[in-house]
Amino acid sequence: MDALSLSQATVIGNSMGAGLAIGLALDHPSRVSRLILIDGLPANILDHLGSPTLRRALTTSAPSWLVSFGNWLIGESLMESTLREFIHDPTLLTPAVIDRANRNRQRPGLFRALLTVGTNVPLWERDYAPRLNTIRHATLILWGEEDHVFPLPVGESLHHTIAGSTFVPIPGAAHIPQWEHPDLVNQAILRFLAP
Asked: pTM of the prediction?
């Protein structure tokens, strides 16, 4: 924002990106005009997490070299099953999407970076989750009704925690509603941003 000379902006984030948006709003409230959270991070992440794959990733104590070896050995089949946990409509998992995901999975250093998420969950729970109820920005919360990573009641709870927030469930979508139903997500965002 400083590099672009932006003193303030509406910040949008999905999943962990929503956690980053929340962190910015809490640590630098004057820099955020409005907040849009899409299937975002709740307090007590591990208590609400419905994805077995993400739970294993967040709680593993395996070294990154071992995870990388497992990725090389069985990563292709694991990638598709992981993607199925994130979406409601399996027809979105076209050969092109699977191929791109597998190419991304093979990028050097990827798993070392991903494993840091598990070490940062305690920091989220200690430094940010307890302050969710102090957010005073106009906040839109969009949530896929079929989300199995963080089920719909988790989104409703986040909505009740952030005073004055607007909650919009997205039907027929899971953890990435902006991919599954961009039309519904974009309409809700534009309504929220309208003067």
From this structure: 0.86
